Amino acid sequence: MENELAAKAEKIPEIKNDVCRTAVVMAAKRAIESKRTDRLFDDPFAAQLVGSKEIQSLMDYWEKQDGKDPKSNTLRIQFVAVRTKFFDDFLISVIPEVHQIVILGVGYDTRAYRLPLPPELCIYEIDLPEMMSRKEAILKDIPSKCHRYSIATDLQKPWVHLLTNHGYKSNQPTVWLMEGLLMYLDKTEINTLLQTISDFSVQGSYLGADLISVKSWQIGSKTQKGLISKNWRFGTDEPEELFAYYGWNASVIQPGEIRANYGRYSVQIAPRSVPGMRRSFMVTAKKE
């Protein structure tokens, strides 16, 4: 099956859009993590979605930058490995309370295929047409663990009606996941998105997201060599306040802290009381 998927991926046009390409890099890192003996999760579809050429190209680039340092791959993928594991655990923990999940900017996320989900659960995946069409073409013959609905659209355009057309119920609790999304939107777009989500979420709904600090955004957006960071458009040092404004009670943690380390970070993370630092935040929140 893996060989068939890999062969299929090689025949489908590659992703060209810069922001969509960031999802390709993230999936490549998940594929590399999945090959580790001490892996934090197993994503058997990541390599097939990305393709072996993409993965090898990424590893060749790392070797050129880092030399043959045996720790290179571990350091390069530690954030994605921890973030993926963190939100995997979050989703599994809240699923008993909800019957629908909406993943915005889903990219090559394969949780609908790889997590132990109840078959009656509904997952709605939303991303740009270029991303969704390639993902659908590669995985079309793979059964998902639950009801899965693919919605190809731009989040900067009206999109809620597409959710409801596919059966989304705004009167039932929802889990919203925005993993690797918000830093690519500007402040106005984020405010509009969070307002929309809040308007269509009842009490008892959950939310998961990650963000970067102001310093990370300022430095990253000026680095034109980086595929990921050069596309960043937003950062905040107070994610709790951002979500509280829209009615969400948020808990925030930095990758590498005790509850989000998983044995992957050896360097102590600076406490948030230290200002002006480059940081990443992982947020889980509940509408109360």
What attributes does this structure have?
alpha/beta, 11 helices, 7 strands, about 15% strand
What's a concise summary of this model?
The chain has helices at residues 2-11, 18-34, 46-50, 52-66, 72-94, 111-114, 129-139, 160-165, 187-199, 214-220, 239-244, and strands at 100-104, 122-127, 147-152, 175-178, 206-212, 248-253, 280-287. By secondary structure, it is an alpha/beta fold.
Shape: globular
| Helix-strand topology string | HHHHHEHEHEHEHEHHEE
Oligomeric status of the shown chains? Answer: single chain
Sheet with the most strands: spatial strand order: 3-2-1-4-5-7-6
Low-confidence stretches: none
What is the rounded Rg?
18 Å
The separation of the N and C termini measures 44 Å
Total strand segments: 7
Approximately how much beta-strand content do the residues carry? Answer: 5-15%
Largest sheet: 7 strands, mixed
Structural class: alpha/beta
Output the number of helix runs.
Answer: 11
Mean pLDDT: 91
What is the percent of helical residues?
40-55%
